[in-house]
Amino acid sequence: MLPEVGRRLSVPVIDPGHLGLKNPLDTNAHYFIDTLHLSPAGNAYLAERLVRELADRDAL
Question: Are 42 and 35 in contact (CB under 8 A)?
Fold first, then answer.
């Protein structure tokens, strides 16, 4: 759903990688403190993906 909204609004949507809904919680549990909130490792992972996306777009 988010990719479609991003295209419609002409805004980028970052692929969440291991944090996405397609990955079962038991394979990425160390990224979350519960079913919704990121752990420190999850925040670091998402920050790395964000920095990579911004660098790829020459936005840093």
Answer: no
CB atoms < 10 A from the CB of 33, how many? 13
Residue 20 CA from chain centroid, whole number: 7
What pLDDT, in 10s, does the model give residues 5-41?
999 999 988 888 888 888 887 788 899 998 889 999 9
Residue pointed to by tokens 């949507």:
13
Other beta carbons less than 10 A from residue 16's beta carbon: 16
pTM of the model: 0.78
Do 19 and 45 form a contact (C-beta atoms < 8 A)?
yes
